[in-house]
């Protein structure tokens, strides 16, 4: 299990700037979680003054293809198949599009490529969880990826918590993503970490 945190921030400033060109304050936090070798989970949290449209773009290499399945995208690259899906909090609307685009490996040389864009609209406080299931050959599959309702230690409802389930033969791995690391209870788990992992083999708890 790998975990990394990245933060960026823009603060409005009036130094040598006319009033109508001020950049509104925003905050962007990204957490990368790798449950190797199968899952990469990207947690993006954005905040700004007023409602905005947030777009997350994934640029695919030239020669890669992308298509939509029932509940995920299928990415094909160099003979490998990868599945991609997105999770947003309850009440948020998400649009996902596969667009024709280009990449440039060498100066002044454009090659046709695809870009996956996930768009959240009309919100000042947004969260987007991207789940990339690499080497999706059918022996392992993501059977669940959704927001869940957890409770605090005092019993209050907590939102912004997500569940991902990975099935592989007789093994079930469940990941609870808790981006803010709050102390909470969900189902039969108690945690205060950014991610909790539970693995069961033939129904027996292993970790």
Question: What attributes characterize this protein structure?
Answer:
207 residues, mainly beta, eight-stranded antiparallel beta sheet
**Total of DSSP H or I helical runs spanning 4+ residues:** 0
Shape: globular
**Mean of pLDDT:** 85
Compressed to H and E, one letter per element, the order equals: EEEEEEEEEEEEEEE
C-alpha end-to-end distance? 13 Å
Count of DSSP E strands?
15
Unreliable stretches covering 5 or more consecutive residues: 18-22
Query: Radius of gyration over alpha carbons?
Result: 19 Å
Helix content: under 10%
The gist of it:
This protein is mostly beta strands.
What does this structure look like?
This protein has 207 residues and is mainly beta. 0% of the residues lie in helices and 69% in strands. It has strands at residues 2-10, 26-35, 39-59, 65-68, 73-77, 80-87, 94-106, 109-133, 140-152, 157-168, 171-177, 184-186, 189-191, 195-201, 204-205. Strand 2 (26-35) and strand 3 (39-59) form a beta hairpin. It is globular. 19% of the residues are buried. The model is unreliable at 18-22 (pLDDT under 50).
